[in-house]
Amino acid sequence: MPADEDDAAxxxxxxxxxxxxxxxxxxxxxxxxxxxxxTRDALARAALRVLERxxxxxxxxxxxxxxxxxxxASLYWHVRNKEExxxxxxxxxxxxxxxxxxxxxxxxxxxxxxxxxxxxxxxKRDAAKVVAGRLAPGPHLLRLMxxxxxxxxxxxxxxxxxxxxxxxxxxxxxxxxxxxxxxxxAAETAGAGRREVADAAAEHFRALPAAEFPNLxxxxxxxxxPDLDARFDxxxxxxxxxxxxxxxxxxx
Length: 252
Prior knowledge:
Layout: H1 40-54, H2 61-67, H3 72-75, H4 82-92, H5 106-122, H6 127-131, H7 139-155, H8 159-189, H9 194-206, H10 214-218, H11 220-224, H12 228-244
Helix pairs in contact: 1-2, 1-4, 5-7, 5-8, 5-12, 7-8, 8-12
């Protein structure tokens, strides 16, 4: 993760108080004076603004501090380091996320969860890079997790399976978004769209020696034709097919 000189883990002021790793606490991380009006929620909102403006690579403690009008050192009364700031940001990114309607069977509801989560991550700059692999559930994320787990239990999945399924679906969506965003960044910067890149790949496959690469030549359109929505839904549906095996036949 990119970092500049003020992003490394730094000790807080002397005589630190109890550490707070949760996201619901809005008071200082350490005992001592704090900047009037500066809270962890305010820091999270400032980090969101910097993320949207400059991306994750441009996010630093110094820039977040400047966003709220203080020196970077003031932030360490509220968060230990950049990682704890990213934990706050992780939950703040989910503040306006909405669960799908509680209608239809379990497949319909889980498919809705995956589609909404993907759209949510795509709608916020570098959101997938922030949340992927980060388990720091604050109030917004906890609300969504509780709702999803309740639906899984209601569908008939065991507690252990429900927990594994929740992780699996999140990892699939995050990984898909990371993949659909990262490789295209250079191409889009150069002015090429996704369809142009796919068409170029198809042309390359078709031009290969058929005797050596018969499948790539024959399947050029199949490999490059489907758009990302189709690819995403295919993956979700295959995951749901597999999860159905965990349920009794009458609940699949």
